[in-house]
Amino acid sequence: MNRKTLVLPAVAGLLTPVLAACGGSDSGSKSGDAIVVGTTDQFTATKDAPAPLDPAYAYDVGTWNILRQSVQTLMAQPKGEGEPVPEAAESCSFTDSGSERYACKLREGLTFANGDPVTAEDVKYSIERALRINADSGVSALLNTIDTIETQGDREVVFHLKTADATFPYKLSTPVAGIVNPKDYQKDKLRDGFAIDGSGPYTFEAEVENNAIVSATFTKNPSYKGSVKVNNDKVELRAFADADAMGTAIDHGDIDVMTRTMSPAQIQKLDGGSDEKVDLVDMPGLEIRYLAFNTDASSVKSKAVRQAMAQIINRGELVSKVYGTQAEPLYSLVPATVTGHSNAFFNKYGNPSVDKAKGLLSKAGITTPVKLTLHYTTDHYGSATKQEFQVLQKQLNDSGLFDVSIEGHPWATFRPAERKGEYDVYGMGWFPDFPDADNFLAPFLDKNNFLGSPYANGTIQRSLIPQSRREADRLGASKSLTEIQDIVAEDVPVLPLWQGKQYVAARDDITGVAYALNSSSTLQLWELGRGVSG
């Protein structure tokens, strides 16, 4: 094909793919019939996180993308636009007018990959297990509106909620609600290591070295019953140390597909059509990046310090220098394409101003320069993260109001340290669990939040989040959502920086690439296939 970038438009803030990569004659991967997919995600078992692939623990885009291939959920997000669709369930719906009782009926004849039947009791066991374990990853908070679960026979399960939650169907589409076999997953203990047993489209087997996955094989599950059509028999996922190594592999034909995270330079090169055998798919994404604060730490405990940072940081310059057209400045936790978004930070702070920041610090009696260390992860969000933090460091230090140093850490140590409150200021990314404004706010601001942040606002937790969840029509939730975003801009427990597009690169005989990711960055390996010359 002549044009190597396929731009997929968004409709109502959600991904609606309309094109797929064209076929080609070059064979690509040297791994037989398996389609080989590269990633820079790292999957490591550590003392602090010995069970990275347990649905009751996993809570990052990489591990979720493994679980979504192998563990079924009652509901699933569609490959394009729209609300969740039944997956392990035959049907699901609210059975009351107040969005507090949700009932699902399982598909008939549903089995785990080993042949054991999947029953309503297994669903109940799996979700109650995640809530009971309450892992320190914070993932169980997604299920915190559940009060009780009852079963009716082998195929019907009913969720009674503590409060109205119109987003509950989305939550049942996330891996924390994955259905596991009680024979393989203990009731009160996480399953250490890298084994997965489920009823999803694929079975899973990992090759592990030094407590880390180097490659994983997904083999089509012949007993799978669900909503997706599996277009291949086998996919291999290979983990690379960095984007350059992954790029070399696709150039040599050792892999067929590159996913997250390619470097900005790689994307720019492929966008220019320099490689006739590799196509780049460019699609809207809902990924965001932000700074988070330990609001109990002495260096940033004063709101004025956090506000001054919000007043100084120049998002436009940051994006231009590091990501170019691959990202856009973000002035709220909620991306601009999601219903309920408001430019809360721009509304409050306007354009960057050192004078205004100086006034904020002076009024609060803060001695300058404020000494801070910004922490970032070296291997989780792509190779450009270091450059991003160098730009942030320079912006803050050039103001004369801050004395900032930066430190990078591998994800395996970064995430546990962040959860323990060891960092005063640190950089994080967010790939939504589901494409709704609630999921860009509640995980950071509700009780038992994802970050383990000490920040708590009673109005948000007790009033505004519950109000927003009562609205089945998400436009109706906009008032509550806007108020939440305004409070965040005032208190700055987190500081949004940018939102990005998402990219997949594939050798030109691979089909289905345009559907390989949905708007929530969910990897859908079952969409991939091999085409013919054309």
From TrEMBL:
Q: Has UniProt tagged this entry with the keyword Aminoacyl-tRNA synthetase?
A: no
> Where is the protein localized?
Cell envelope
Gene3D superfamilies, A to Z: Dipeptide-binding Protein, Domain 1, Dipeptide-binding Protein, Domain 3, Periplasmic binding protein-like II
Where does the record locate the signal sequence feature?
A: 1-20
Q: Can you give the residue ranges of the Solute-binding protein family domain?
A: 83-449
- Source organism superkingdom: Bacteria
Keyword Heme applies: no
Keywords for this protein: Signal, Transport
Q: Indicate the family of this protein.
A: Belongs to the bacterial solute-binding protein 5 family.
Q: What is this protein called?
A: ABC transporter substrate-binding protein
Originating organism: Streptomyces tricolor
